[in-house]
Amino acid sequence: MNFVRDFRKDCLAVMEAVERGRKFAFARFGTGECAILKGKPVHARGSHWHGDPERNATYYAALQTAWKCERPEWYVGAGCPCCNPAEHHWYKKNLHIPREGVTFATLFMGSNWKLFHDWLMARRSSYVLVAPHHGDFECPANTFEPNWDWTQLRENLLQTLNGTPVMLACGPLGKILCHELLDAATGPLIDIGSALDLELWGKPTRLYLKKPKRKKHFRQAKAKAANDRIKRLRNRTCVWKLSKKAVHKS
Ligand SMILES: [Zn+2]
To answer: What is the number of domains present in the chain?
Structure first.
């Protein structure tokens, strides 16, 4: 699989690679992960987790190790220039893999969400799901707050790896597990993020998962602005031109 940083093409490439059943891991590093990688405290408002570099030192270190992975089967999504230029700049400066392995952290969101979501739903029996609710394997909704030890979950997953794709919907732990399972895996490991949250939580956990109202005339400008923001997020198609020389290869 080669990423070309075309929002739709790269999403289809992940889906096709999963269908082919090849071994690879795809982990997406967004806003919260950027703070963790910089060693800063983080509070991800929409997604139920908080992180502190001292209390959660094990998580911080494991995410660093994942980010620095250089294996050929390791693919990452990173913050894009359109959604967060400051983060994007940091990610671009700190990439550890060639550009063929890099795409958008938002790959399963925005205008790709429905396609990816429907594909996941149609294939539900063909993969193992790790999530806080309704997963085949479950973890706490906020693994950081109890400073949850994921060793047992990792062991349980290792016992079941047989080429079946593993989909992870568990925040930063999903990226860590993608990395820690990669050695033993014989199939795909995908950090799906919030793509199935409507089903897993029974409600939208992110703005882009909310349904915009059709109402043309809002009484309050604020309500209209919020509705427009949801529409923009749902229709968002990220753009990223990444030249060869922009990629730092350690
Ligand atoms: Zn973007």
So the answer is: 1
Look at residue 136 in the predicted model and tell me its pLDDT: 96
Q: Please check whether residue 235 lies inside any domain of the structure.
A: yes
The β-bridge relationship of strands 49-51 and 42-44 is: antiparallel
Per DSSP, the three-state class of 215 is coil
| pLDDT recorded at residue 249 | 54
Residue 233 falls inside a structural domain: yes
Domain containing 107: what range? 7-244
CA of 81 to the centre of ligand 1 (A): 6
Centroid of ligand 1 to alpha carbon of 239 (angstroms): 6
Rounded to the nearest angstrom, the distance between the alpha carbon of 110 and the centre of ligand 1 is 9
Q: Is residue 2 part of a domain?
A: no
Does the pLDDT of residue 248 top 80, yes or no? no
CA 199 to ligand 1 center in whole angstroms: 25
Tell whether 40 is covered by a domain: yes
